[in-house]
Specification:
Order of helices and strands: HEHEHEEHHHEHHEHEHEH
Strand content: 5-15%
Shape: globular
Number of strands: 8
Oligomer: single chain
Distance between the termini: 29 Å
Low-confidence stretches: none
Mean pLDDT: 80
Largest sheet: 8 strands, mixed
Structural class: alpha/beta
Number of helices: 11
Length: 326
C-alpha cells in the first residue's frame, strides 16, 4: 500500500518556487478562513504575500475585521501580508470610462461593443485588472480566495478565453486597422486612438499569455481544494479536481473543514450521528486521494474564526495536524 502523504499544508510553505496559490471549493466550506490562514503561514516564510479575493461576496474584510478594496492594503498586525478585494465586473466599465474621459468616446463605444461580443469578457477583464496589479511581482507569492466552484473554474479559464479573444481582435486590427481608423476619425475620435487601443489590447494579450503559461506550471501554481465531509461537497471536490486536471493546473492538497469530534462520553445523538456520517465520507476521501494528495483535517470550532489573532491560532492547524482532545 502506498505511503500516506503528511496531513498538512507544509508542502506549500516549503515549495518556494510557488507564485500563485488558489483556494477554492463549494460555498460555505471555509475557503476564506483557509486562504487567510494559509496566507498568514506563508507570511512567516516568504518576503511578501498578497491575498486577493475574487469572490463578489468579499469576505476578507469580515475575516480580518478590516476594510479592504481594490488597492493592496497592509493587513493590521503584519509587516509583509497585504490584501485586496477585486470586483471582477468593475474593470471593463473602468476601461470604457477612461476612454470617455480621454475624449475618445467613439473608442469607448467600440471597446464596449467589442467587449460584450465576447462571452464572459467582463469577468475576464476583471482577471486582466488583477494581472495588471500583480504583473510587477512586487509580491513573492499571491494567494487567491476564489468564488464558489463554478465561478472559480470560469475564472481559471479566463486566460485562455482572453488570449483567444484578444488574438482575434489584434488580427482584425491588422486587417482592418486603416478602415477602422478612418471610421473613428469620421465619428470624431482623435487620430491615433484606434492604434492606442490595439496596442493596449496587444500588451494585455502578451501579459495574459505569460500568466497562462505560469498557471500551467506546477512549480509556480497550485490549487488547494477546500471541502466539508459530506456527499455533495466531496462530489464537488472530485469535479473540481477533474476540471483542474483538464486545465493542466496542479492540485495535490485537500482541506477537509468543520469536522466534529464529540467526546467519548458525549450523549448528544445529533453530534454522534454527524460524526459517523463525516467519518464515512472522510474514509471515502482517503480512498480517493490518499496516494497523491495531502489531506488536512480541521475541526468545527465553537466560535467564529474572525480577527488576526484567531486566524493566527487557527492557521497553526494547517501545519501541525489537529489532535482531538480525547
Amino acid at each position: 500500500m502506498a505511503e500516506t502523504l503528511p496531513p498538512t499544508l507544509q508542502n506549500v510553505l516549503d515549495q518556494t518556487s510557488l507564485k500563485w496559490i488558489f483556494c477554492g471549493g463549494k460555498g460555505g466550506v471555509g475557503k476564506t478562513t483557509t486562504s487567510c490562514s494559509l496566507a498568514i503561514q506563508l507570511a512567516k516564510v516568504r518576503q511578501s504575500v498578497l491575498l486577493i479575493s475574487t469572490d463578489p461576496a468579499h469576505n476578507l474584510s469580515d475575516a480580518f475585521g478590516q476594510k479592504f478594496n481594490k488597492e493592496a492594503t497592509l493587513v493590521n498586525g503584519f509587516t509583509n501580508l497585504y490584501a485586496m478585494e477585486i470586483d471582477p465586473t468593475g474593470s471593463i466599465q473602468e476601461m470604457i470610462d477612461n476612454a470617455d474621459e480621454s475624449g475618445n468616446g467613439a473608442m469607448g463605444g467600440m471597446m464596449q461593443d467589442l467587449a460584450f461580443a465576447i462571452p464572459g469578457v467582463d469577468e475576464a477583464m476583471g482577471f486582466a485588472e488583477i494581472m495588471k496589479h500583480v504583473k510587477s511581482m512586487e509580491y513573492s507569492v499571491i494567494v487567491f480566495d476564489t468564488a464558489p466552484t463554478g465561478h472559480t473554474l470560469r475564472f481559471l479559464s479566463f486566460p485562455t478565453v482572453l488570449e483567444k479573444a484578444l488574438g482575434k481582435i489584434s488580427q482584425l486590427g491588422g486587417r482592418f486597422g486603416g478602415l477602422i481608423s478612418q471610421m473613428s476619425t469620421m465619428m470624431g475620435a482623435p487620430a491615433g486612438g484606434q492604434e492606442d487601443m490595439f496596442a493596449r489590447l496587444e500588451q494585455m494579450r502578451a501579459v495574459i499569455t505569460e500568466v497562462n503559461t505560469q498557471f500551467k506550471d506546477p512549480e509556480k501554481t497550485t490549487f488547494v481544494c477546500v471541502c466539508i465531509s459530506e456527499f455533495l461537497s466531496l462530489y464537488e471536490t472530485e469535479r473540481l479536481v477533474q476540471e483542474l486536471t483538464s486545465y493542466e493546473i496542479d492540485t495535490h492538497n485537500i482541506v477537509v473543514n468543520q469536522l466534529l469530534f464529540p467526546g467519548a462520553a458525549s450523549t448528544c445523538e445529533h453530534c454522534n450521528v454527524r460524526f459517523k456520517m463525516q467519518q464515512k465520507y472522510l474514509g471515502e476521501a482517503h480512498e480517493l486521494y490518499d496516494e497523491f494528495f495531502h489531506i488536512v483535517q480541521l475541526p468545527l470550532l465553537t466560535e467564529e474564526v474572525r480577527g488576526p489573532e484567531k486566524l493566527k491560532t487557527f492557521s497553526e492547524m494547517l501545519v501541525k495536524p489537529y489532535v482531538p482532545p480525547n
